[in-house]
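Have a close read of the entry that follows and walk me through the local backbone shapes. See right below:
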Amino acid sequence: MAAEQLDPGERIVTWDEVHRDTRVLVCNLLELGPWKGIVGISRGGLVPATILARELELRYVDSLCIATYDEQDMGEVNIIKKPEEACADGGAGWLLVDDLVDTGTTMKVAKSLLPASHVATVYAKPEGMEFVDSFVHEVAQKTWVFFPWDMQLQYTMPLSRTGENKAE
């Protein structure tokens, strides 16, 4: 029987992996502070921002709400909410956090609002790396990363009932 394989253009990241990888990011950021606060880019950056806030013992957490994707399709950049205090500082002393930098479209807009911020992502693709100061894992440009907050666990029928148990 052949082993089930994921599409090589996909990577599923678990909650445990996000937590572990974000803690690795913390270790890289500890020496670079102190930080005034964290700005998480919604929605994906809010999870690592929360973990970073806890591990760095930062209480000031704000959000930059930018929409660029509709599911897996790139759309127009739409700024929904700006972090006013961080913007007033030009981002100096602030961590700007996202889960992933892909092409850099979102981060380019974010950096235009917070040019002096330190950009930290958990995952980075080659096209967006020029916009990131710290990251943990490089991901191939063509790989689509599925994060746990975008996934749902569901019941799976036993193989004996699906007919998929036959040797190939």
Q: What stands out?
A: The mean pLDDT is 89. Helices lie at 15-29, 46-56, 84-88, 105-113, 159-162. The CA atoms of residues 13 and 69 lie 19 Å apart.
